[in-house]
Amino acid sequence: AQYPSASGLGITAGPQASFWHSAAAIYRPVPGAVAGLYVPIGIGNRWEIQPELLLSMDGTARDIPDGPQRILRTFHAALPVNLKLFLGRTFNLQAGAWGGYLLHARMDGNEATSTISTLDMGVCAGIGIGTGSGVDLTLRYCNGLANTLKDDHALLPSSRMLVATVGKRLVQFRNTRSHGH
Fold first, then answer.
1. In terms of DSSP bridges, do strands 2-3 and 177-178 run parallel, antiparallel, or are they unpaired?
2. Where are any strands of DSSP class E within 27-118?
3. With CB atoms counted within 10 Å of each terminal CB, which end of the chain scores lower, N or C?
4. Residue 177: is its pLDDT beyond 50?
């Protein structure tokens, strides 16, 4: 059976909830957003590889004993690359890796870029729907693998994100994709 184009160039955006995870401290999620470009490339019967270039507003919150909640907001340039397996005409499973470069950070309204690790990386898994009209819906969970704090040897936090996006393929590279059954 023939299916809509798999390869193209599109824009994507959506909300996300991000937080840090540490065995030594409790962090809380904060709302954020992500937006950017994606390039789904058909690589086989039921497969796509999808690199993305995103701007991500994320961060975390932490309750301080006998004090107010501290909120960290970060702004990253992120490069996720996911492999997508289509289980039918539209539904797909996704898994991959991502890397992020810190552009800016603020803690409670004050500059905090110098305390946050410049590079972040991790793995993602999720589900998606790709329609024949070029609309892509995605829900992903990303698990960081790197320490997010510079010069930290006690808390060792890593980032976590739940991301929902809506994408639209603006340019189609091929006319058809075939999914064998």
1. antiparallel
2. 27-28, 30-38, 41-42, 47-63, 69-86, 91-107, 110-111
3. C
4. no
In the block, residue with structure tokens 């909830």 = 17
- Give the integer Cα–Cα distance in Å for 53 and 78: 6
Overall average pLDDT of the 160-177 stretch: 83
pTM score? 0.87
Q: Which long-range contacts (CB under 8 A, 24 or more apart) does 151-158 make?
A: 154/24, 155/22, 155/24, 155/25, 156/22, 156/23, 156/24, 157/20, 157/21, 157/22, 157/25, 157/27, 157/60, 158/20, 158/21, 158/22, 158/122
